[in-house]
């Protein structure tokens, strides 16, 4: 039995490593489908692999590090030939998620995102702060290799940073949600979710492809999704809106028509970032308030039960029967 257990552990680790690497590589190929040209450099508005890496670290721990490293290597090899200079990008794209994981673990991050502090931590520590590493390593490597002029460093760095951060803000909450997902028991919730999905499928394309710049129409839908379904509704709505906006921006359609590459990048990233921030923080606030209300209701119920028991214990005893009382007097 001991021998079988010892054999299972390396096999399980190998399967998990390959699964993480495959998910990272698939997310990377998906992210490369839509690209923007910023100052002569090709960047992705949303880089999903960073979200996959942070989610895997939060779920499986540091034992998923090897799979993340292999995934980064596979993505790089699918784009360019393996060179010594690639090690800088490999190190940056691996170190950034690890840094995000360590900082989130340091502040007591909960993967259910049921508190406002968890949403704030994921935004500022997991996305904005940690992805400075990958953006600096990637854009700095381009400058060192003379593939990018030093005067164009900051626009490319900004686009790289925002793209990596968007991957964490959108993909990581979605994967954490799927990890702990439970089907709603009531049929009415399914009907409501289907109706909301139909509205989203009609409203989001209208907002992202209309030349009238109607992107603001997505926000009421996002708020409604957060109010009714918390993180599940808000993050799926944000994912749909961000994906549609990215497709429209890369094709320069709708509100992104007749804009320069830099204007497209700034407008798209501002919209995607505000959508992700609204989805995360609003759903965290609503979930925290609901959990607080349930705790208060539970405490009130417990208090009522305690008071009922105390009242029952202090009630006067019932008088003894008359026959027994008369017999006692006679004695």
TrEMBL record:
Principal localisation: membrane
Entry's transmembrane regions: 12-32, 52-77, 124-145, 157-176, 196-219, 231-250, 270-287
Keyword Cell membrane: yes
InterPro entries the record matches: MASE1
One Pfam family named in its UniProt record: MASE1
Residue ranges, annotated region (Disordered): 311-331
Entry superkingdom: Bacteria
Membrane topology: Multi-pass membrane protein
Domain MASE1: 18-290
Basic and acidic residues: bias regions: 320-331
Cellular localization per UniProt: Cell membrane
Keyword line: Cell membrane, Membrane, Transmembrane, Transmembrane helix
Full protein name: MASE1 domain-containing protein
Organism name: Streptomyces plumbiresistens
